[in-house]
Recover the amino acids of this structure.
């Protein structure tokens, strides 16, 4: 069934919908008008090659800039936010160790999976309250052809920071976003400032940043090509999660102890000061991952990887991807006790792992490295690995 033309949710009914969606576990519920084309900067981003090898994004560029191509007849976008901040004291424990660092979002079971039941329930609620069918809406979390941060800015959920993140005045940077495109017309919320209604102006990042540039200054790999614009090719998040091959050598030192993802431009932001511990209704914390020692990861077996990372986003990186990242972290650690573990990985079945292991041995063992690596080098045939020697 197609939603009857003119069907509108507003006033008290809209607030009831907001409250009931909130009760499902969504910490932010906002509404935006779906019309028009937006995200002009997105085409420029692709043209400049800043999406690296994420060709799946470029293939859906038209849909990403025009919601009507995703759901013909779409009237509104419901933007939902889930707070994943663990509170200041837990966060201090998670980050104050000498252990490898994980993006905070990854210290949970995969949010794509844990948020899905909430989105299914949200759809049912829309059917009940607006009398529509399941063909009248479409929900997404992360993987859909939807510019989630852009819609969130338009709905007034927050603003796009100079760090490109959608920043909420209540939750700071620590929100997962999800969206429901629907043919039901829901009275839109106001953006934080009226200018966000105009896509061109709205695409300018930093509405509530003032003179602050902390995130731009703190990025370890200099990944911002302009305020609000991340060049994925230089971003640690891209390199440690999305890139499945060789991490460019010049970026490896900047990765530091970050074994999966990067939160630097989020954690320095002063807007986080109001963040409160999340309700965790649509999340399942896996803070235990922050206790893993680097040596344990370097010496992990595939079975142990499957066991430890089951249901987490890290499983999508695959075992070899994690070993590759762990080699980079080892190379940056200055901890010579790790040399035997990385030396063993210089003989690993995966050329990608071998390449990063060779780099790590050279960083850790200095002048002694080539002698230690002699036997591995004698067996090596892969050009990319040989280039590391
Ligand atoms: C591709 C991607 C990445 C790439 C590229 C990063 C980037 N800056 O785009 C990589 C792998 C590097 C990455 C990293 C991270 N990501 Co990411 N990523 C995405 C994804 C799938 C698409 C983003 C995209 O389209 N990027 C292209 C750029 C150019 O678009 P943009 O930044 O959104 O800006 C455009 C729009 O906002 C638009 N616009 C402006 N105003 C308006 C108004 C309207 C109405 C519209 C429609 C558009 C619009 O114009 C801008 C330029 O075109 C989204 C999920 C999604 N479907 O949106 C998650 C998403 C953005 N990532 C997320 C997260 C958490 C991260 C990390 C923090 C993970 C980590 N800790 O390692 C880092 C942060 C890096 C950073 N500072 O941006 C969250 C962000 C939540 C939030 N509060 O902002 C999202 C929304 C996933 C989710 N569902 O929660 N990510
Ligand atoms: S996530 Fe890290 S590497 Fe990427 S832009 Fe932010 S600070 Fe830079
Ligand atoms: S750190 Fe400063 S410049 Fe960066 S997003 Fe936060 S307020 Fe804006």
């Amino acid at each position: 069934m197609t939603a009857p033309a003119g069907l509108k949710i507003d006033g008290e009914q809209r607030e009831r919908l907001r409250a009931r969606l909130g009760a499902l576990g969504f910490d932010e519920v906002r509404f935006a008008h779906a019309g028009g084309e937006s995200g002009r900067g997105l085409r420029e981003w692709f043209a400049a090659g800043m999406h690296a090898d994420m060709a799946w994004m470029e293939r859906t560029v038209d849909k990403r800039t025009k919601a009507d191509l995703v759901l013909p007849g779409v009237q509104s976008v419901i933007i939902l936010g889930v707070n994943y901040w663990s509170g200041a004291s837990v966060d201090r424990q998670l980050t104050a160790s000498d252990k490898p660092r994980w993006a905070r979002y990854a210290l949970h079971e995969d949010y794509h999976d844990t948020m899905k039941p909430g989105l299914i329930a949200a759809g049912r609620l829309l059917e009940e309250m607006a009398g529509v069918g399941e063909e009248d809406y479409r929900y997404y979390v992360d993987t859909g052809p939807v510019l989630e941060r852009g819609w969130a800015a338009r709905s007034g959920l927050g603003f796009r920071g100079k760090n490109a993140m959608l920043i909420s005045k209540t939750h700071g940077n620590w929100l997962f976003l999800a969206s429901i495109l629907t043919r039901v017309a829901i009275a839109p919320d106001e953006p934080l400032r009226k200018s966000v209604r105009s896509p061109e102006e709205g695409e300018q990042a930093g509405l509530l940043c003032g003179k602050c540039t902390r995130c731009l200054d703190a990025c370890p790999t200099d990944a911002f090509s302009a305020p609000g614009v991340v060049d994925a090719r230089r971003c640690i998040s891209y390199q440690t999660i999305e890139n499945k091959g060789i991490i460019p050598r010049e970026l490896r030192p900047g990765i530091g102890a970050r074994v999966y993802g990067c939160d630097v431009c989020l954690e320095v932001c002063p807007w986080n000061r109001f963040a409160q511990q999340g309700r965790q209704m649509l999340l399942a914390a896996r803070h235990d991952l922050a206790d893993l020692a680097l040596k344990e990861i370097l010496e992990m077996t595939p079975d142990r990887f499957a066991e430890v990372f089951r249901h987490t986003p890290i499983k999508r990186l695959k075992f070899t991807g994690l070993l590759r990242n762990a080699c980079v972290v080892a190379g940056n650690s200055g901890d010579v006790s790790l040399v035997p573990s990385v030396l063993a990985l210089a003989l690993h079945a995966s050329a990608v792992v071998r390449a990063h292991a060779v780099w790590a041995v050279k960083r850790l063992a200095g002048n002694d490295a080539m002698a230690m690596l002699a036997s591995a080098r004698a067996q090596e045939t892969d050009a990319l690995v040989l280039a590391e020697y």
Summary: The longest strand covers residues 76-83. Residues 292-389 form one domain. The mean pLDDT is 94.
